[in-house]
Design goal:
The structure holds 2 protein chains of 2 kinds.
Chain A (H helix, E strand, L loop, with lengths): L9 E8 L2 H17 L4 H22 L7 E8 L3 E7 L25 H9 L2 E4 L5 E7 L3
Chain B lengths: L5 E6 L2 E6 L3 E2 L2 H16 L5 E5 L5 E2 L1 H16 L3 E5 L3 H9 L7 E3 L2 H13 L1
Parallel strand pairs in B: 2-4, 3-5, 4-6, 6-7
Antiparallel strand pairs in B: 1-2
Helix pairs in contact in B: 1-2
The chains are: A alpha+beta, B alpha/beta.
Chain lengths: ~140, ~120
């Protein structure tokens, strides 16, 4: 995923402690830009869902909600595309080892839905080898 | 002290709980919302529960997890749980996670009440 190859209208790079209130403020800032770029409701929902689940994963699962650990966030946006990078300071995980929450044996268990939702609502997604850096892109459908 | 997260009313023997918040993604909101729904099932008079989402525009996987807990509780106390008024975008999240096969979901409150009434009349 090469974010440098694009022309972006808006960008944000920041680091913040593991706190969902800060993450929600950040999501609001991104969603305000998405709104200004006139993405439709379905596309806005998809971006909101991917951001929410990516930041929950980084803060709660990656950093274990430890406020001394940081989340490093980058976002680039133009009228057609959004690129997001989320890095936590945890030990990482293997996304391929997350049980499939749609499997009838796992459907009533608590975990795995966040990763599935991110994968389903974005156009491209990748983790680094360690599993503590997530990058995704969402392209407009129209 | 927790905030009221649901509006509750009775239609015959059906308890209808309408979620107040437009977004169900904050941990505290979800915790309070889930606890208030679970508390309804603690009441023996509540064995038909319809949860109305008509005001909700966004729901995270944490809220879906709280609904699974509610579903388990409903089974435990032999109550029937129906959901209604789910926004199209949120419905997509239910479909992706196949939770649309776990929950009985009706289009709106009227349809939910009618479903309970038909089941009772049989």
């Amino acid at each position: 995923m090469d974010s440098d190859a694009q022309v972006w209208n808006w960008s944000k790079d920041c680091s913040f402690p593991s706190n969902m209130n800060i993450a929600h403020d950040l999501i609001d800032q991104v969603m305000e830009q998405i709104k200004l770029s006139q993405w439709n409701n379905k596309e806005k929902f998809a971006v909101n869902m991917a951001l929410e689940e990516a930041l929950v994963n980084a803060i709660q699962h990656g950093n274990g909600s430890d406020p001394t650990k940081q989340v490093h966030f980058s976002c680039r946006l133009n009228g057609q595309r959004i690129y997001v990078r989320v890095e936590d300071e945890g030990s990482g995980f293997n996304p391929n080892e997350v049980p499939d929450p749609t499997d009838p044996e796992h459907i009533m268990i608590a975990s795995g839905r966040g990763v599935l939702l991110i994968k389903s609502f974005v156009s491209r997604i990748q983790w680094n080898e360690k599993g503590n850096v997530l990058e995704f892109e969402k392209e407009r459908e129209s | 002290m927790s905030q009221q997260r649901i509006d509750v009313k009775k239609v015959a023997d059906i308890t209808i709980a309408t979620s107040r918040d437009m977004k169900l993604n904050d941990d505290l909101v979800i915790q309070e919302w889930g606890e208030q729904l679970l508390a309804l099932l603690e009441d023996h008079a509540c064995r038909k529960l319809l949860v109305n989402f008509e005001r909700v525009l966004f729901m995270s996987s944490s809220a879906l997890r709280a609904l699974i807990t509610l579903n388990k509780k409903a089974k435990e106390v032999k109550a029937t749980l129906l959901l209604c008024g789910i926004d199209d975008n949120i419905m997509e999240a239910f479909r992706i996670t196949r939770l649309d096969n776990v929950f009985q979901i009706k289009r709106n409150e009227d349809e939910g009440v009618r479903t309970f009434t038909v089941v009772t009349d049989k």
